[in-house]
Amino acid sequence: MKIVVTGGAGYIGTELVYALAQNAEVKEVIVYDNLSRANHNLFINGKMPNYEKVKFVKGELLDSRQLKKVLEGVEIVYHLAAKVTTPFANTDPHFYEQVNHWGTAELVYALESSDVQKLIYTSSTSVYGSSKKAVDESVSPNPKTFYGISKMRGEEHVSRLGDKMNTIILRCGNVYGYSKSMRFDAVINKFAFEANFNKKITIHGDGRQYRSFVHIDQIKAALSRLVTTEVNTGVYNLVTRDLLVLDIVDELKQQIPELEFIFVNQHLKLRELKVKVNNEFNDKLGITTDKSFAQELVEFRNHFSF
Fold it and tell me: Which contacts qualify for 286-289: CB closer than 8 Å, 24 or more apart?
C-alpha cells in the first residue's frame, strides 16, 4: 500500500516513517513536509532500512493543487503536520489558524475527491481545555488556547470524512522521549535537557498543574499498527500518564541530586488537565506501560552525549 505522512519530518513523523518503512505491507511512504521547523534529522545519519520505499515532497498544506497530486494512488494518510509551540500556545493565533485549521481544511477538500481509504489525524488533548477531573472522549471540547481551538477546528473538518473513509482522530497527550527529530520545547524533554546540562530547571507557575503525556515510542507503535489494525471511525484519547509538573521535577531530582529549580510567577495557578487513559484502545494497539517513568527518564538521559 501507498501512504502519505504530512509533517513526516517532525518529531512524531520521523519515528513513524522509520516504522512504516519496515512494514512489509507498505510499498511506498511519501513524506509531505514544508520543513518549517528547520529540522532535517530525518534525512541524515546514514540510510534508513528499506530507504527505497521513502520519498520526500516539500509542500504546504495550503497548496491544494499539490496535495491532490500527492494523494493519487494513496490508500492511507497520516495527518501529523501542525503548528505547535509549547508552552506558548496562546501566541501567534494567525499561524495556528492557517496551518492547523485551514491547512487541515485544504487536506480534507483534497481527500474528498481522492480514493484514500483511511485517515489518521493526530489532534491534541488541548481541545478539552482544562479539568481537575480526568476527562474522556464523551466530554465536549472546550479549548482555552489558540492552539487548542485550531486543533478542534481541524477535528471538525476531519469528521466530515467519516461517511467516505475510515477516519480516526487521536487526541494525543504531551509527547516526550528520545527521537532524532525531537522537540525540546515539550515540557519533559525541556526539563531533561536543562537538568542534564544546566543542573537547573525553570518552572512556570507553582508546578501543581496536571498534564497528560504519551511516550514517543508508544505513539509510534499506535500509529504504525493502525496500518493493519481495524479501528472504527471515531475519536480516541492516546495518553498513558497524568503527571504533576512537580512529579517530573521530583523524579529528576532523585536522579540528579544537585539539581536546582526556580519558579517563575509562582503565585499563578496555571491551567491543568487530566485525561483518562483509554485502556481498551491502548490494549487493542498493544500499547503498554511496562516501564516506569523513572526508567524512561534514565533511558532518555542516556542518549545525551555528556
Answer: 286/221, 286/225, 287/218, 287/221, 287/222, 287/238, 287/240, 288/218, 289/218, 289/240, 289/241
Q: How many helices (H) and strands (E) does the chain have?
A: 10, 14
As a whole number of angstroms, the distance between CA 298 and CA 252 comes to: 9
* Strand-pair partners of 31: 5, 56
Domains of the chain: 2-176+213-239 (3.40.50.720)
Q: pLDDT per residue over 147-200, tens digit each?
A: 999 999 999 999 999 999 999 999 999 999 999 999 999 999 999 999 999 999
Give the C-alpha separation, 151 to 84, whole Å: 10
Cα–Cα distance between 104 and 216 in angstroms, integer? 23
The set of cell numbers assigned to 271 is 491551567
